[in-house]
Structures are given as structure tokens and as C-alpha cells.
Amino acid sequence: MRRQQGMRLDERYVPYLQMAGLYHLARLNDRWFRIDEPLLSAFVERWRPEMHTFHMPFGEYMIMLQDVAYQLELAVDGHYVSGCLTGFHIYIYIEGGRPAWVWFKEFLGVIPPSSQVQKFAVNCSWFQKTFGECPEGANEDTVRRFARAYIMMLLGTQLFADKFGNHIHIRWLPYVARIEEMGSYSWGSAALAWLYRCMCRVANRHVVKLADPLQLLQS
């Protein structure tokens, strides 16, 4: 039994999470989640990549956008999430022509040490240590920085986790940079597409670890 991640949900983040459309996801993250490994293994064994469906004793079943909207309360309409999942390492600059780490310092207020960085991904333990507790009496700018970090954690460990779950990619910086606009994106569609992709990958007998929104798959 575990939580997806150990950063505490601070009440001061709530307005930003609501703007981003991720408040319900944050509430789920703040509670313990019991992983049913035999159940997840059974889902993997019954997944058919060519059809994107589970073959059950009662017939075929697939996870749909309605399931995502109901279980995670994520938007399934709106702008599509683009340019976040592949090829980020090719682009050392992001919007505005500034290096990615310049953006990181501008919007999160600190640069991680090189020992905590793997290409463009930051060690989760450093993230938790640095942004785990927002200081008492922090001004609005500081709270906003910590809220951005919390949202990056949600995206990197709950919706779009890798199979190890120990790094947070900075591909999410362009989104948290405009936190007021995040609610206009179809995060539910992106999460479902990522789930399908991960299921197709783990269906390969040479792949031994599963990476996807485990709460969505299990529920």
C-alpha cells in the first residue's frame, strides 16, 4: 500500500490546482493507495495491443474517456497536450528561445544539482526535499512556485510516470509556466493515450515493469 508520491497537499495550492483542473487528482494522491498486483498482472495478460482492449471471460472491454472523466475528474475536451512525451531531449530550448534550465530557475526558483539530473529529468527525492513543504507565511510568488512543483509531480508520477517512477521530466515546464491555462487542456485524453501506450509496451514479453496511471487502470 503506498501513495503515488510523498509531497503533501498544501491547502494554499488548491486555487492553482483548481485552475489547472487537477484538484481531484491531487486529493487522490494525498491518500494511500493499495496496489493489487495480481489484478494488474491479470489486466496485462488480457490486453490485446492490436485492438486496445482487454479480453475478458464476458467479452471485450476497453477503458474509455468517460472512465477517465469519472474516476479522475480530468477534462476530456479542450486543447490537446502536445510535444510532451517524446523527443524532448532533442530540443535544448523551449518556448521563447530560452534554455530549458533557465525556465526551470525562473518558474521554480532553483536549479537542481547535476547529481540529481538525468538528461532532462530530475530525481524525485530532490523534488520532494526541495518542494515538499511550503514555508509558513510564504508570499504569493513562493506559494505559486511550490504549486508549480507540486503539479509537475502530479503529472510526472501519477498521469505520465515512467516504469521506475523516480524522476520527474521537465517537459511540463511550458504548462506550469501558464498555470491559468492548464485547465483548458484535455489531460484526460492524454492520460488515456499514455495508458494505452504503456499497456502495449508491457505486452511485450521482454518488458518487465509497467508504467501508467495505476489508479486509473486498477479502478
From TrEMBL:
A Gene Ontology BP annotation from the UniProt entry: meristem maintenance
Domain Aminotransferase-like plant mobile: 21-218
Pfam families for this protein: PMD
InterPro entries: AminoTfrase-like_pln_mobile, MAIN-like
This protein's name: Protein MAIN-LIKE 1-like
Gene giving rise to this polypeptide: LOC107489115
